[in-house]
Design goal:
single chain; 139 residues; globular; membrane; DoxX family protein
Length: 139
């Protein structure tokens, strides 16, 4: 049995990493911008979770998502943007996608959201690790 090997040049690796980082960032940038367009609805959703100052929390969430997304897309301070988004994902996932407190009809949907967010969290940790190992921001 023979095994195939795929050789990837360092330039290709760098390009693929930049594209992957930008795709992760676009998720957050779009999400933050969408919240701006539906401010009242998202604020009500935050209020329904019985969190204090929902409008202020929404502005904070939009700021984190937009700024973090832009750092990943541009590569400027991507290490810190990834870390900020990773930290942001943990409480928002637990607060807004708790499948354990959802009704039966919605529990699998919320479980799917948890799995998606865990995968995205993994992506943020990969970006943070790669950027940390470089010792500098990419040009």
């Amino acid at each position: 049995m023979t095994t195939a090997t795929i050789s990837v040049t360092p330039t290709t690796v760098a390009r693929l990493y930049s594209v992957g980082r930008a795709l992760l960032g676009s998720l957050f940038l779009i999400s933050g911008l969408m919240k701006m367009g539906s401010f009242a609805g998202y604020s009500a959703w935050i209020a329904s979770a019985e969190l204090p100052m929902p409008s202020l929390l929404l502005v904070l969430a939009m700021t984190i998502e937009i700024a973090g997304g832009l750092t990943l897309i541009s590569g400027w301070n991507a290490k810190w943007g990834a870390l900020l988004l990773a930290v942001f994902l943990v409480p928002t996932t637990l607060i807004f996608h708790g499948f354990w407190r959802a009704d039966l009809a919605d529990s699998w949907n919320q479980f799917n959201h948890i799995l998606k967010n865990v995968a995205i969290l993994g992506g943020m940790l990969v970006v943070f690790a790669i950027e940390s190992s470089r010792g500098h921001e990419p040009k």
